[in-house]
Specification:
Blueprint (H helix, E strand, L loop, with lengths): L1 H23 L8 H15 L4 H4 L2 H25 L7 E3 L10 H13 L7 E3 L2 H48 L3 H4 L2 H23 L15 H16 L4 H26 L5 H11 L5
Antiparallel strand pairs: 1-2
Helix pairs in contact: 1-4, 2-4, 4-5, 4-6, 6-8, 6-9, 8-9, 8-10, 9-10, 9-11, 10-11
Pfam families: Ion_trans_2
Protein name: Potassium channel domain-containing protein
Keywords: Membrane, Transmembrane, Transmembrane helix
Length: about 290
């Protein structure tokens, strides 16, 4: 029975590590528990029509919540591993009152101290197998800290790329180029560069799915509000007279279709055409195209 309980704790740790791996390091970033947490917080904020300032905190709050969830599950899982063997398989420092506490309390305390790599030493594993496996928890704690820092450092460049594209589209919309200005070599270069940026954003939504739950600022920096204008530019490029402009328009239209497919597949689930997907994207972020 003791080993069964310990195996349950090990299973909880493995489930947590799997979710952490799929969220941060898997090529497609298909996290399970983390995605559920982020989606739930996003829908809760949208359902109650929270103010933009509050909705803007959903992304950072969701990341903090997910990291806390991972840490809690790792601590709890290892505590369950220790629990059936406490206190008989552990040694206590002289004068320590830890042995007088309930076994579960001591197990959680030991797990917290170990995952934080504090190494206080008032409770130490005595049996050989525990002395071999308990340092693994300290390694997991260090890995979790490193993963959290790298996650933060990765997500904000992705958000910057998305907002740069949105601001560029806003500037183009404000300048309102004519068809004649677009139907030239410079117009082909412009459309081609926009297609490249759209592809980058598409990859960001694939590799950093949590970026979707970050609410952008004003409309000029919101891709949800500006993506419709990119589709309009693509249509104008496709109807241009110059072949290089038509090709660039086709490239931009293809990149937008691919982006719409990713948004719909991973977040919106409308099954609609790209134009409708972008409209749903704008509505989900409280924007109007």
């Amino acid at each position: 029975m003791e080993w069964l309980v310990s195996l349950m704790g090990a299973g909880l740790v493995m489930v947590t590590l799997r979710d952490l791996f799929h969220t941060l390091w898997h090529p497609t970033r298909h996290g399970g528990l983390s995605r559920l947490v982020m989606t739930a917080l996003w829908r809760l904020a949208r359902r109650f029509r929270a103010r933009r300032r509050v909705v803007g905190l959903v992304g950072p709050l969701a990341m903090v919540t997910v990291v806390c969830m991972w840490a809690s599950f790792i601590v709890l899982g290892w505590a369950i591993v220790y629990w059936p063997h406490m206190p008989g398989s552990f040694t206590f420092s002289p004068g320590s009152e830890a042995a007088q506490e309930p076994a579960l309390v001591d197990s959680v305390y030991l797990s917290l101290v170990t995952v934080a790599t504090l190494g206080l030493g008032d409770i130490a594993p005595g049996e050989g197998w525990l002395r071999l496996v308990s340092p693994l928890e300290a390694v997991m704690g260090f890995a979790l800290l490193t993963a959290t820092v790298s996650w933060v450092l990765e997500i904000y460049p992705a958000l910057t790329r998305r907002r740069v594209l949105a601001i560029r589209l806003a500037l183009l919309r404000d300048s309102d180029p004519t068809q004649q200005q677009l139907d030239c070599t410079a117009g082909a270069v412009l459309l081609d560069s926009l297609a490249t940026e759209v592809v980058r954003v598409r990859l960001d939504f694939t590799q950093y799915a949590e970026a979707y739950y970050f609410h952008d600022g004003e409309d000029h920096s919101s891709l949800a509000a500006m993506i419709g204008y990119a589709a309009a530019l693509a249509e104008r490029g496709q109807s241009a007279g110059r072949p290089e402009v038509r090709l660039a328009g086709d490239l931009l239209a293809g990149a937008l279709r691919d982006l719409a497919a990713i948004l719909d597949q991973r977040f919106l689930h409308t099954g609609a055409a790209p134009t409708d997907v972008f409209a749903a994207y704008a509505a989900d972020h409280g924007r109007a195209q």
